[in-house]
Design brief:
Elements lengths: L6 E6 L6 H13 L4 E6 L13 H12 L5 E3 L12 H11 L5 E6 H5 L10 H4 L1 E5 L11 H7 L2 E2 L3 H5 L5 E4 L8 H9 L10 H10 L14
Parallel strand pairs: 1-2, 1-4, 2-3, 4-5, 5-7, 6-7
The protein binds adenosine-5'-triphosphate (ATP).
Length: about 220
């Protein structure tokens, strides 16, 4: 039995962080509720090309995005660990730090559907619960290895997230924001403003540092 609110863990490439990441995790933080959500940028993503923007820069964009927001905390542990950033290693590390605490790994539905390709994915629930965010355009699997695994762990109520430290999978409805980092990178590359999709401080830093191919004079409208 745990006595304190769970800790949320939200990993991602955050290339760059956008409101499609931030609004859903704020809702989970407030509604479950969680004690905090740790946003953990991946250093070397195992499932995709290495981002063009360094992990130090992505980390900095994330810090600017959550500055002054109580309960949203940036955790740089993956950027300090060499080699591929496997989530199972991150959870094992957090479990050593918090041996008795409820830990909730927060995932978008698209990431959840890709779980079977993750390193030692079936061990994730040894270390944490999973909280899956409904993301536009995706639904839970109806059949297959993930559907079978889910059937043994799914809870319709968030209660197990408070009463045990790991093991359950819970789907939490959130405001649907059809925003992706890919869309933002494409907008910038096409000379269009990503404003109102990312926090203003994030956009200012992208401009200052010329990230994602931004160069002065690219835009027809002033920035
Ligand atoms: P990219 O377009 O570069 O693949 P992304 O926008 O999907 O990036 P990631 O950093 O890869 O962002 O995702 C981190 C986590 O956030 C994942 O669990 C992903 O499913 C979730 N996520 C990303 N965008 C949204 C969104 N609009 N709504 C809900 N969850 C999201």
């Amino acid at each position: 039995m745990t006595t304190t609110a769970p800790i949320g863990i939200f990993g991602g490439t955050f290339d760059p962080v956008h409101f499609g990441h931030l609004r859903p995790v704020l809702e989970v933080l407030e509604e479950l509720p969680l004690a905090e959500v740790r946003l953990i940028p991946v250093h070397v993503p195992p499932h995709r090309d290495t981002p063009s923007v360094s992990s130090a820069q992505r980390l900095e964009l994330l810090r600017l995005a959550v500055e002054g927001v109580p309960g949203l905390v940036v955790d740089d542990r993956e950027t300090r660990r060499p080699g591929p950033s496997y989530t199972v290693d991150t959870l094992a590390d957090l479990r050593r730090e918090f041996p008795h605490r409820s830990l909730c790994l927060i995932l978008g539905m698209d990431s959840f559907l890709g779980l079977p390709s993750w390193h030692r994915w079936q061990e994730l629930t040894r270390y944490a619960h999973l909280v899956v965010l409904d993301r536009p355009g995706s639904a839970p699997p109806a059949e297959g290895v993930l559907a079978d695994w889910l059937a043994e762990r799914r809870t319709e109520s968030p209660e197990p997230l408070r009463s045990s430290s790991a093991g359950a999978v819970y789907f939490h409805p959130v405001t649907q924001l059809d925003i992706s980092a890919t869309m933002i990178r494409h907008l910038i590359a096409a000379g269009r403003l990503p404003r109102f999709l990312v926090p203003e401080a994030v956009w200012r830093r992208i401009v200052e540092q010329g990230l994602y191919g931004w160069t002065a004079g690219t835009f027809t409208h002033t920035t």
